[in-house]
C-alpha cells in the first residue's frame, strides 16, 4: 500500500517526490546512523514522504527527544500524524525556524533530509539551506541523501565538514551526506 501511494504521488508530481519508490531499509539505516540518539534532544526530518526514516527516528529517539517532521504533501503528512502522533508536524521546509518557535525549540541537534534537491531551483535550495543553517546548533549535523554528487560543492561551502557514504542497496543507489556545522 505504501509503495502504491508513493508511486501515485510520484506520477502526479515527480519533481516534488523525487523517486519512483520509497527508500530502502539500507538507506534508512544509513540516514539515522550518524545520530547520537542518547544525547539528541531536537531532531527534524525534511521531506518525510511515507515515513521510511520517520519509523526509525521514532523507534530510536529517547522520550525526551522532540522531533518535528516536515512534509509538504497533505495526505502523506496526515498518514504520518496517525502513525506517529507523539511527533510534531509542519508542512513547509522553508519555515524551519518559525516551526521551531512554534514547538519551543531553540536549535536542532540533527536535521535529516529526504528532499530531492536536484529537482529544486537554486533559489529554493538556497532558501531551504539557509533555514537549515540557522536552525542547526553549532556542531549540529545535517544528514541528507541524494542520487548524485550535485550538492557536494554547495554543502562543502556551507558546512565545516562534509563526508559521504554510498548506499548501493537502494533504487536508485544513493549518497548520504553528513554535514557538520562549525562549533
Model description:
The radius of gyration is 15 Å and the shape is globular. The longest helix has 14 residues. It has a 7-stranded mixed sheet with strand order 3-2-1-4-5-7-6, sandwiched between helices. The protein contains 8 helices and 7 strands, in the order H-H-H-E-H-E-H-E-H-E-H-E-H-E-E. The protein has a single domain, classed as Vaccinia Virus protein VP39 (Rossmann fold). With 183 residues, the protein is an alpha/beta fold. The N and C termini lie far apart (43 Å).
Tell me the layout of helices and strands:
Layout: H1 2-12, H2 14-17, H3 25-32, E1 42-46, H4 52-60, E2 66-70, H5 74-83, E3 88-90, H6 96-102, E4 108-113, H7 122-135, E5 136-146, H8 152-158, E6 161-167, E7 174-180
Parallel strand pairs: 1-2, 1-4, 2-3, 4-5
Antiparallel strand pairs: 5-7, 6-7
Helix pairs in contact: 3-4
